[in-house]
Amino acid sequence: MLWGMTRLTARGRTRLALPPRARFWLGVILALVLGYLIALGQSAVVRPPLVIGQDAVPPSGQAQGVTSTLENEGGAFINIKPSGEAKTLLVYYPGGLVRPQAYEWLGRALAADGVQTVIPVFPLDLAVTGINRADALIKKFGAGKTVVIVGHSLGGAMAAQYAKGHTDQLGGMILMGAYPAGNVSLKDTSLPVLSLLAENDRVADPANVRDGLNRLPASAQLTVIPGSVHSFFGRYGPQKGDGLPTVTHAAAEAEILSAVRAFLAKLPTP
């Protein structure tokens, strides 16, 4: 028996009795662990403010007459509209735990081409909580337009899952650093698909993105964004576990915008 470490209880059994100093440091460690867990929980439940237009000027410059508003249709969403009549509707599913305004830059850039972009606000910023959010938005805004569903990261996987059961409503799909889940296949459909892969992405494994092409139509187009990383698809800062970029964020955005514009230009009109 170690003196000072165990003691006899009323029933004759021994139990650990730590010295005061050890009990103090154990309490400190437990408090730190508890504080860390609470902080993690708060970051997931208490989301940062949703601020429209805070950092939304695209690399190609601001188109004239673009409006960006926070509205509600089956839940809150950002509605980015061109000055004239929209010919295309983009429904954008954000990445996991990413605030929707991180993708406002793309919607504002595409507005110059007559594209309306709607970005749903999901509970906890997780698209998995509302895979069918696109339904209400397409019903409200999609008439007479080419409807394209877009998703980044987890949002891309959920966009692919939505597309699987709604190909008749869609004119195309764009995945950004994303791929369909293993049980989701659009291989037997004729849906036009663009898959964007950031060259230095370490969040969405490039091998998994390429493997995802096996669950997409044979016509699916893979475009690599040179020197880019996973977080460069949006504007939300560096992401844990991501790779190191070898280009500027602005240069990567210009490449992304160019690839998206080229893809949309080839889509058939309703």
UniProtKB/TrEMBL annotation:
It holds the Pfam family Abhydrolase_5. Residues 90-249 form the Alpha/beta hydrolase fold-5 domain. It comes from the Bacteria. GO terms for molecular function: hydrolase activity. This is Carboxymethylenebutenolidase-related protein.
